[in-house]
Write a structure and sequence with these properties.
There is one protein chain. This protein is 46% helix and 18% strand. It is built from twelve helices and 14 strands. A hairpin with an 8-residue loop joins strand 13 and strand 14.
Length: 385
Amino acid sequence: MHGHFERNNAKKPGGVKKVLLIVLGIVLLLVVAIIIGVVVYYNSMLDKINYVEVPKITYTQSTTPEGQDAQAEEGDATETPETTAPHVASSEDYINFLVVGQSSRAGEEARMADTMILCTLNTYEKTLTMTSMLRDAFVKMPDYKGHYGGRIKLTTIYNLGSYYSDGDPAGSMELMNQTLYDNFGIEVDYNFEVDFDAFVWIVDAIGGVDIELTEAEANYLNDDDVWVTYDVEPGMAHLDGMAALSYARMRKAEGDSESDIVRTSRQRKLMEIILSELKKEPISGLQNLANEVLPKITTSMSKSDMTSMLLTILPMLPDLKVNVGGTCPADYWGDMVDIYDDGTQHSVLRFDVAQTTKTMRAITEGEGLETMPTEAAETTQETTK
């Protein structure tokens, strides 16, 4: 009997090992199944987005801030430890997304850029800066697909790009990107186009937005019987999606002497509130939001680029600071111009191309920031962001 028990005990370690291997195999299978499920779900979400291929622009401006090479060479000569060298801003730190809210819909087929916001992500400083592109900026349109480019309002560029490309939104994005580069020195990395329905749905999905209204703004919304179905009061007001869209498009409230300037400031304020609310949404809420909104988005970003971008952005979300920013051009003056040579005068905004380009290169590529006195650099970033 004693020997019998010894033989049974001798088999136990092998039996335990076999059970552990089986359990480990099941766990691994479950992990693989979960990963496959996540990947499949992630890809299914990406498939909802509308993708277009926009030809890349060959940028010729220097993306190395003035003096950076000299500083690097000096550092090499003196063998300054890398840990003590201050970070020098470069184009590698910046990613520029152009978000366009376009007004095309049934009965209004023209693809007009109703809202243009340049979102600049600084991956080193973990900031997202929003700069509104002024619709009335009087820009030089580049020659495009056999069409001569003359002077025209910036808002018209998006429509012409689509028109010259037989309705393809990629044409809108391509022509807008080239125009922004030629006139302002802006290098757009990725384009996003969102229609009005998507905006309304996003605001309603987060339960509306709370925003402070002036008396003139409240009166404007109350007079809007198309988009606003209820009355609001001056002060803090709660707006649903339709009312928020009316607020974002508001141009002629009493006191809006520079309508597009005030209008774009409202848009940036509204965007900041929406982004803040989205950060509070649970995963389930974001999933529902994505299901409805993604089909209403058109982008030049590929799926692989989007995956890489998400891996870059997600870790910095808790510390990401959103800067409401300013306008482009930042300095401008009004003028009346007969744009179409038909005897009709149109209000436009003229600007200094060289100065605007210098300012926008600092915001979007970090050029020149390290050569400026600290106080001046901080002021430039604040006023232009």
